[in-house]
Amino acid sequence: MKKLFPLLFILAFFILFITACTKIVTTDIGGELLPPIDGINTKEMFVDVVSKNWKDTIVRVGTGIPNALGYVDDPLFGKTSATINIELKPTFPLKFPVSRDSLHIDSVVLVLGYNGVWGDSFPHMKLGVYQLSVDDPPYLSSDSVYKTNQYFTKGKQLTENNVPADIDITKLNDSIWPFREAAINQLRIRLNQSFGDELLRNYTTDSVSGAYYSDSLFERAFKGFQITPEQNAGNALLRINLLDTNTKLAIYYRYDRRDSAGKSDTTVTYFRTNNYTCGNSNYIVHDRSGTAIPSFLSDTNLNDSLLFLDANPGIYAKVITDSLAFLSNMVIHRAELVVEQVPDDRPNSADNLFTPPNLFLTPYSTDSMRRFALPHDVIISGGVFSNPTSFGCFPSKKVDPITHQTYYVYNFDMSLYVQGIVTKHEKVYPLILYAPSNDYILPTETSPYYAYVYTGSTSGPLNAPAIGRVRVGGGTNTTHKMRIHIVYSDIK
Fold it and tell me: Would you list the domain boundaries of the chain?
């Protein structure tokens, strides 16, 4: 496929055409600023594009962004399984109120910060918790941000009674009152009581080998937790906030007081995570078999009629717009790449459950595959992408006037970029259309590698990993065609 795709650059010169008409297509972004189309002073045209599905991406997911957890079976995009591996640690050195022989476990609970759901929240999800293997590297490390295809070997089952926990998603945002805490948005999984006994009795604060003495000694003794979904149980992905104060290991226990009363007190000790001392990974697997996607990822078509875009790690599309270089000089009032959803009209459609992601459009260098900001139209401020709304990253809903079917549309503003092409003969770049998660681009094609900027905002990424998918029309689609819409005036 990589050898064939450059042929699109040559093919585009012959198959692309430019048409003009006198009826403007409605746009929600900047539409009120556009002059009326009269066919004499102000005109519009549509420029065809070449589009091609491209392979699944692999990304890195850090602690600071929402992690995905769960399992979905989507008729259009296939099956997705998302597992979280995480280190949770006490404050060192950890000291209990009394000696180990006077400690008695009540329960031990793994608590995860719940930050929303994508998919069907009604079927119950089943989650198993395991201890990460102490024998099989690689091991989690706080100084690494792991790729979504990095597998970690699970060891001993820790879930209570060695049975996956049954999770009712609809109740995760209910208020609860565990011991000494009033909480909301907690996913709580009870673990085996024997594991709690191990935590109370097997580790010490001995300065030579005691796991509770220091971070490095604890890592040798306990490698972390793996939370993994059961296949075919549930149909949703959860957003999990690992840095939320809700995320912790809660050890509830009693201890014998060393006084004349001889009574027992009840208390709780927490293990938590942070950016500096705890490693994590989000292991995400897509199974596209049984869907139409594999045929569109083949070399058969050079200009796909359907594009399948899902949040990274997911499928992206390459878009060729070479015919922009043949436009004459003109005043560009508005130029936009129009991307329309092709809704699934089958009886088992899951479009209402699996909502679309936020998309991003970026040029890339054909030699190095460096991605960078679309010239003039993408604004970067403080090291982050600052104009996602005006650029067109967020989908808007439309209703087909004939079929009355609702679908999503993206309108990417490329007005200044196209103006630079037609007026200054600036370079026409191939484009990538994708749904970024933890993703970075360069400010310009020639920027040094250390100048990468975040495609998200200060509030977070455009998408949580694997959450969001949309099937859109490609360059040859007959009803939801991807195209460039230009409103312009001739220069006299």
Answer: 7-59+289-490, 78-286
